[in-house]
Design brief:
The chain has about 270 residues and is of the alpha/beta class. It is built from nine helices and eleven strands.
């Protein structure tokens, strides 16, 4: 598909739940930029063909990448920033003027945005999941000096590999294990997302000052966050990370800084 109007997309499987088009279109309208942003359903078997086709379209500025493509996409684009080695997953692809494609990752910075004012050095984090989002979380936590990370994952081998690669103190637990005491619990898995199985955890081991951060944003209030609120634990929902990583991608796609002063209006739109 070729169009004269610049456009970017978000791709994934499934993709109907994505709120990225609402975010980017909100900013495009606020800045009076004539461009478009849309969701495009891409199944794993079609990923290579999609990238080949879009690279030939000069109006295509790039795409955000969500489940399940954050690892596979790395084999289809260039990696000048060393994202493969540093994080091991890509969530943003940007088309250059010559048609070449560069991959990067805005998830790590987006993840840290709502919790950057806290001191995480030497603290203990529990991360649910060991996929692309968990890789970005691991990178971000290491950058701020986290002391220990415990992965809770279905694939213990994959999670162990992440810890070894990052050279971070920690351990791996199965999904049905009792949680350890921790300063922050992060759900970096799709569990709890609309259409996915629920994430069922006993939060009793967490201390009263622990923070529970769920990267899932559909639904906005997940079962995990409801359970955390019942214990009066501090919570962060997935919209904060979504908006943070989207802002970085928006600049790459459209060459303009999003009007972050309109965040309250944007959040109302996303939760309507």
């Amino acid at each position: 598909m070729t169009t004269n109007i610049p456009y970017a997309e978000v791709i994934g499987d499934p993709i109907a739940q994505s709120k990225s088009p609402l975010i980017h279109k909100f900013w495009l309208e606020r800045l009076a930029i004539e461009a478009n942003y849309r969701a495009h359903h891409v199944v794993p078997a079609d990923l290579t063909g999609y990238i080949a086709q879009r690279s030939e379209d000069p109006s295509w500025r790039g795409c955000n990448v969500t489940l399940p493509h954050k690892l596979a996409i790395m084999d289809l684009v260039s990696d000048p920033g060393g994202v493969r080695d540093k994080i091991g997953a890509m969530n943003t692809i940007v088309r250059q003027e010559d048609g070449s494609l560069i991959g990067t990752n805005t998830d790590a910075a987006g993840f840290m945005a709502p919790i950057a004012d806290s001191d995480w050095s030497g603290k203990h984090a529990v991360v649910i999941g060991a996929g692309g989002a968990a890789r970005a979380v691991l990178f971000a936590l290491k950058q701020v000096g986290i002391g220990e990370i415990t992965f809770v994952a279905r694939s213990g081998l994959k999670a162990t590999g992440l810890l070894m690669q990052a050279s971070v103190k920690g351990g791996v637990l199965p999904m049905d294990a009792r949680l350890p005491e921790a300063d922050i619990l992060i759900n970096a898995s799709p569990l709890g997302m609309t259409g996915k199985p629920p994430l069922e955890l006993d939060l009793d081991p967490l201390p009263a000052d622990a923070l529970v951060y769920d990267l899932v944003y559909a639904p906005l209030e997940t079962g995990l966050l409801r359970a955390a609120k019942k214990r009066d634990l501090a919570v962060v929902d997935g919209l904060d990370m979504l908006i943070g990583q989207a802002a970085l991608a928006f600049e790459l796609f459209f060459g303009a800084t999003p009007p972050m002063e309109d965040d309250d209006q944007l959040r109302k739109l996303l939760t309507a």
